[in-house]
Design goal:
mainly alpha; about 90 residues; rod-shaped
């Protein structure tokens, strides 16, 4: 098994896009040289795609959640926000 194949596997777990690139390079190298490790290179490529998709999905979910936090500051139907009653240290 080539070092490129092992690098692809490690990189696909740590940083998905790099694992995709190295996995495809390893598959090409294995095809040209009839080497071993095709299954590992293919697994590294698939894991890289999964990790990349999971990363993109988590960013979208985080941004959606972050954006939804602003919705709680919207004014009420009268146009003003009611005073907060839970402010620590507020005069009674």
């Amino acid at each position: 098994m080539s070092g490129l194949t092992l690098s692809a596997m490690v990189a696909s777990i740590i940083f998905g896009p790099l694992g995709i690139v190295l996995g495809h390079l390893a598959l090409r190298q294995i095809k040209k040289t009839d080497g071993e490790g095709r299954g590992v290179a293919l697994a590294a490529t698939v894991i890289g795609y999964i990790m990349t998709a999971a990363g993109i999905l988590s960013i979208v979910v985080a941004l959606t959640f972050w954006n939804s936090l602003d919705d709680y500051d919207t004014p009420t139907s009268t146009g003003t926000n009611p005073p907060s009653e839970s402010f620590v240290g507020a005069p009674r």
